[in-house]
Structure prediction request, 297 residues.
Amino acid sequence: MSSIEVVCVGVITIDTVALVDTYPDEDERVIAKGIVRAGGGPAAVAAVTLARLGVKTAIVGTIGDDADGVEVLRIFADEGVDTSGISIGSSPTAGSVIVASRAFNSRSISTRQPVKSEEINSAAKELIQNAKYVHVDHVGITKLKPAGISRGRGPLISFDAGYGVETFDTAAVDLFVPTDRQMALRHPAQNLESALKSDALSAQNVVVATQGSKGSSGYSVATGLVTTAGFAVDVVSTLGAGDVFHGALVAHLIQGFSLQEAMQRSNAVAALSCRGLDAQSMIPTTLELNAFLEANK
Prediction:
């Protein structure tokens, strides 16, 4: 039987990220404070986070038969993430060109998606069947039903609900993690607490909303409302912080932390990741996380 505890399914990219003070005007050139190339994609970033926190993790998705695909495999090998569920397609590996602005604390993204996202292969299906969790992003969620994977049949399903989930049926997943903005779109007449409660009770699952630097709020039948504050760090870029939070939350729930403890620790992991320009380089290990939490009691 596989020792893999979590299988992450979805987008895998190689990103080029530039840090500038302010965005350039039309036909203007600005000097970047730094430029890096690194791995990205919601599912991929979550997988690296899980691995650094000591959880046996696999990644499932599509890459191309190109230099970026080779780099993707190298990154995951270095992190100890199982790649047997990755499919190699005929189109180039997905990627993004991202410009992060210090002045606006924001980013602009131009993305190349794969022309064809391959279906889940047989190796991936076997990994998922024996895992504790399958964690999916907006692409991964579309791959589960065709592969015969549904809530209550196999692993718990965690959904990084970052895009277009206004009408999503939350009963399809065990752990629903949107942003506070997505919750406001889902429930425009309710405050965040009421919206979390409404979704969690109707689906009988756990719902956690990320709130950026403010922290996170969650609701489950077992705990009721749970709120946790964010952590202050020297921010370079917030790129991928939400994806990091998702991976960390699943990791800490698997490791037996209460929902509130898991959210608090995940807030810290996401904050620490913001010390880097890219999404992955500054994700902490468990030792680094514990040292940070001890210093910030």
Observations:
- Residues 184 and 192 are 7 Å apart (CA to CA).
- The chain has one domain: 6-23+32-295.
